[in-house]
Specification:
Length: about 675
């Protein structure tokens, strides 16, 4: 085909070395013995210079081929200390790599041809060294292993196919436009492949840039916690750092997940959102929503700030709330009512009230007050909703909302209750209390540890409520402008939200956040293992796709799920790959008088076939710490992340203790947690 691009021919012996050696020898002879070759010095020396130049050029060409072969087997080490991570006010640093183009797909295809296997397989000497180390591991010569590893270093423990990145020997720092962040970012990859490391790189830059940073960490990553603390202090923002951790309540900041809202109905939504909503459970969740909504409205009218403890106390004794609200209602709309109301008088004269109290199990004072209000024909939406609850049998009604009680019990038990239902009047408690509006206004840096390995149900409830709260705040900022969440003395900040195990934290209320929160300055970075996890959590493939459609930037690390891989591959164009076909033929001569009794023919045919720029199989073979990125509206980059170099830093004693305990506790339980996610038993399931 005339328009078929030529083959590069990189997978071959570096034969340029031969001509380089001959040219170099010739140059040496001409310099040392100008009369060699019957040349005069005036001609010999320029000829030597030309020969030396040819030798240098050809040697460099051979070196390029050899480096390419070496790159296919093992990449050079790439690590950065935290302080060395670059940052800019206009661009976002991702890692080191290159723009992935058709030529790279062509090179990768060629590495997988059987004839080129010798260029990509591991060095046989290295394989023998590793086998030798295993053989002597438990013997008296086990000490020799340190010498073999020094002389023949083992490959880094990243697995995968190094040729996926090695097809381009020339790489550079990858930067993307900061304006793309408000389009939100999705990071996909199976467990232990570097998702959190990529998040650390982005978080480091956001902190230095002065953004508000909020990080949700369900499992508990000690390195991530300490990295955020160190970077906050390094950027001079140590006083803006907050740690909220359900696993370490004695050191954690406090937060009321249902205490701040734009509409009172959000309280019930956040609580009911943590309950199962599939099948028949959806009906019972609606009962719970209405029950909690009535209680929350009554508390709000009475001047109480809703909290888990307050809601739990009222659900256990709704009658006392009814009495308090009825008295408030009468004080507001029927002055002097206490002179006309005598407790017990109506129940004596109206046996129906006594019978109603007996049948429903309700407080007699609440029943009498409700009758007294009806006599005066007063109207109040909250009070009438409380009438409805009182008219139902107490035991029957508690069965309808039974799923609420275990959840509230967990959220109000032990020291966790002090975190989630803070006592605002207790001046002796030095732990700070925060809410998202104040965090956004002051430019806070918040690490949220949900301790999911200890209690995934509580973690799911708190995480879902926090996301719903952030969505509400985004709505207020979007509606009223940046001044709703920003101090007038400062220019508007971006709010960078990171959600590890993203699928376990979201609910339907998250959809408007990724749909419209860009206008509120939110830039969401979500990390998850497979997109199927998101669909399972939402319970609706169409809604999950709606969420996915709002992530304009995608980083795909190693995945084990073809459907997840296709989130990237289906967005890429089909390309033409160059192929070669070898053929040979021989035929007998038609004329017996000719000397040649037969003729033969050998040829290489160059053609093209349709192929994929990146295939799902490539994504399965990615080494740890490597990714494909679809950025800036279709630019495909291949990148690798820097390994974290040893970084000396000073931590406060309590933070070091927390980090050590997190490392011990969560390292032992991470496999159990991952298995729970695989089986669909993760947070909030």
């Amino acid at each position: 085909m005339s328009d078929t691009p030529p083959l590069e021919g990189l997978l071959r012996p570096p034969i340029e070395r031969v001509s380089a050696i001959y040219a170099g020898i010739s140059a040496a002879f001409l310099v040392l013995n100008p009369t060699w070759g019957l040349l005069v010095p005036a001609i010999a020396y320029p000829a030597a210079l030309i020969a030396a130049s040819v030798a240098v050029v050809r040697w460099r060409q051979a070196k390029t081929i050899a480096a390419y072969h070496r790159n296919l087997r093992r990449l050079s080490k790439y690590e950065l200390r935290s302080a060395e991570i670059p940052f800019s006010s206009k661009k976002l640093f991702i890692g080191k790599g290159f723009d992935w183009k058709t030529k790279h797909a062509q090179r990768l295809m060629e590495t997988r041809l059987p004839k080129n296997e010798k260029y990509v397989r591991r060095n046989p000497l290295e394989q023998r060294a590793r086998a030798f180390e295993l053989h002597i591991e438990h013997g008296k010569f086990s000490g020799l292993s340190k010498y073999t590893q020094r002389w023949i270093p083992p490959p880094p423990p990243v697995g995968g196919d190094p040729a996926l990145h090695g097809v381009e020997p020339i790489e550079s720092d990858i930067w993307v436009d900061l304006g793309e962040r408000v389009g939100h970012t999705l990071i996909l990859g199976t467990t232990r492949v570097g998702k959190t490391r990529l998040a650390e790189i982005l978080i480091t830059q956001d902190i230095r840039r002065g953004d508000t940073v909020i990080v949700f960490d369900p499992k508990g990553d000690a390195d991530l916690l300490t990295r955020m603390y160190v970077e906050a202090h390094r950027a001079g923002r140590g006083d803006q750092f907050y740690m909220f951790h359900l696993g370490f309540p004695e050191w954690s900041a406090r937060y009321n997940p249902i205490g701040s809202f734009a509409k009172i109905t959000e309280v019930a939504t956040r609580l009911a959102g943590a309950l199962p909503g599939e099948g028949q459970s959806a009906t019972f969740r609606e009962f719970v929503w209405r029950y909690v909504n009535v209680i929350a409205r009554a508390l709000d009218k009475l001047g109480f700030k809703p909290s888990y403890e307050e809601i739990y106390a009222r659900t256990n004794n709704i009658d006392s709330l009814c009495v308090s609200y009825f008295e408030y209602w009468l004080d507001r709309d029927a002055a002097g009512w206490r002179d006309d109301f005598v407790e017990g008088e109506r129940s004596k004269s109206d046996k129906a009230l006594t019978e109603l109290a007996r049948k429903t199990g309700r407080s007699m004072r609440a029943i009498e007050l409700s009758a007294f209000i009806r006599e005066r024909n007063l109207r109040d939406p909250v009070g009438e909703a409380l009438f409805t609850i009182l008219s139902n049998d107490k035991t029957y009604f508690e069965k309808l909302v039974a799923s609420l009680y275990p959840l509230l019990e967990k959220l109000t038990t032990g020291s966790v209750s002090e975190l989630l239902s803070p006592n605002y009047s207790n001046t002796n408690d030095r732990r700070p209390i925060f809410d998202w509006m104040r965090i956004i206004e002051s430019g806070g840096i918040v690490y949220v540890g949900l301790d999911a390995l200890s209690d995934h149900e509580v973690a799911g409830a708190v995480g879902t409520a926090m996301f719903a709260d952030l969505t509400s705040v985004a709505g207020q900022i979007y509606k009223h402008g940046q001044s709703a969440g920003q101090s007038a003395q400062h220019s508007p900040r971006k709010t960078s939200i990171y959600a590890d195990e993203f699928n376990e934290l979201i609910g339907e209320e998250f959809i408007p956040m990724v749909n419209k929160a860009g206008g509120a300055g939110y830039q969401v970075t979500a990390l998850t293992q497979t997109w199927s996890d998101v669909e399972a959590r939402i319970g609706n493939a169409a809604k999950a796709e709606q969420i996915g459609g709002n992530f304009n930037t995608l980083y795909m690390m190693r995945v084990k799920n073809v459907e997840t891989a296709e989130l990237l591959t289906k967005q890429l164009p089909e390309i033409e790959l160059v192929t070669t076909t070898q053929s040979s033929s021989a035929s007998e001569g038609a004329d017996p008088t000719l000397v040649a009794g037969f003729t033969s023919r050998n040829e290489d045919k160059i053609g093209a076939k349709a192929g994929e720029l990146v295939s799902a199989a490539d994504l399965v073979k990615l080494p740890k710490g490597q990714a494909y990125g679809l950025v800036e509206g279709g630019r495909l980059v291949k990148l690798r992340l820097p390994l974290p170099a040893k970084d000396e830093a000073d931590y406060p004693t309590h933070l070091k203790m927390i980090a050590d305990r997190m490392s011990e506790r969560y390292a032992q339980s991470s496999e159990t947690y991952d298995a729970m996610l695989t089986e669909g038993r993760g947070i909030g399931w």
